[in-house]
Amino acid sequence: MSVKPRGRPKSFHDKTDQNTVQALDRGLQILTHVAAHPGRTLSEIAEATGEAVATVYRALVTLQGHDMVELEEPGQFWHIGPGAFRTGSAFLRRTKVVERARQSMDQLMRDTGETANLGAELRDEVVFLAQVETHETIRAFFAPGTKGPMHSSGIGKALLAWYPEEKTRGIIARQGLMKFTSLTLTSEHSLLRDLAHTRERGFSIDDQERAEGMRCVAAPIFNAHAEPVAGISVSGPAFRMGISEATRFGALVRAAADRVTEATGGAQP
């Protein structure tokens, strides 16, 4: 019985005259898949992406040449490479927020005993930029680059609350209000009411709206035009962070966000 190699095809003869943009799009889709599902073989990646094995192999070898992916031997398993990290890090260097937020995040983690996060909006979603983890065994974890919906995120709701209403409604219309738990706000009316409360108290609360048993408190960071450009938060398990504790943490989170706003030359609205 013959066994097909899992890392590369026996033969490779793809003579399709592909458009360059189409090839790039396929390559980026494959790169995204490898990042989300590390340790898969060539055939598994091809099956999951719906592309021909030869096409996937050509894309992986090209990406490997730029250190974007790596091939683990033995076993022929594909992983994300250091080149992808270097490229992704350029996004973090685009703004001073990540650098200037680190000290405030460290202090926030010490003051609350919970994980501190930094995030921003990217194409109608929250993308996490940095994190300072608590030393507790049970804790929240969001790797830099992790994305999520705004309506069920502490940082997402903090940004939505200070966006112009037209922009907030646009994001809701495009992304929808998917239900994740019994506490997720799935109607525009309930979300807008929650955002109004957020503005009144100065910080948002994700009360187990994305994941049962986890709470998050967040506040926005503003640029020089008093526009919300990022958010800072603390998140932790509900058994440690009750509603009263979350409210107490809110003042600390807002103070940390305000310090970052000041350190980056921002202005309060």
TrEMBL record:
<dbReference type="InterPro" id="IPR036390">
    <property type="entry name" value="WH_DNA-bd_sf"/>
</dbReference>
<dbReference type="InterPro" id="IPR054844">
    <property type="entry name" value="TransRegBhcR"/>
</dbReference>
<feature type="domain" description="HTH iclR-type">
    <location>
        <begin position="21"/>
        <end position="82"/>
    </location>
</feature>
<feature type="domain" description="IclR-ED">
    <location>
        <begin position="83"/>
        <end position="266"/>
    </location>
</feature>
<dbReference type="Pfam" id="PF01614">
    <property type="entry name" value="IclR_C"/>
</dbReference>
<keyword id="KW-0238">DNA-binding</keyword>
<dbReference type="InterPro" id="IPR036388">
    <property type="entry name" value="WH-like_DNA-bd_sf"/>
</dbReference>
<dbReference type="InterPro" id="IPR005471">
    <property type="entry name" value="Tscrpt_reg_IclR_N"/>
</dbReference>
<keyword id="KW-0804">Transcription</keyword>
<keyword id="KW-0805">Transcription regulation</keyword>
<dbReference type="InterPro" id="IPR050707">
    <property type="entry name" value="HTH_MetabolicPath_Reg"/>
</dbReference>
<dbReference type="InterPro" id="IPR029016">
    <property type="entry name" value="GAF-like_dom_sf"/>
</dbReference>
<protein>
    <submittedName>
        <fullName>IclR family transcriptional regulator</fullName>
    </submittedName>
</protein>
<dbReference type="InterPro" id="IPR014757">
    <property type="entry name" value="Tscrpt_reg_IclR_C"/>
</dbReference>
<dbReference type="Pfam" id="PF09339">
    <property type="entry name" value="HTH_IclR"/>
</dbReference>
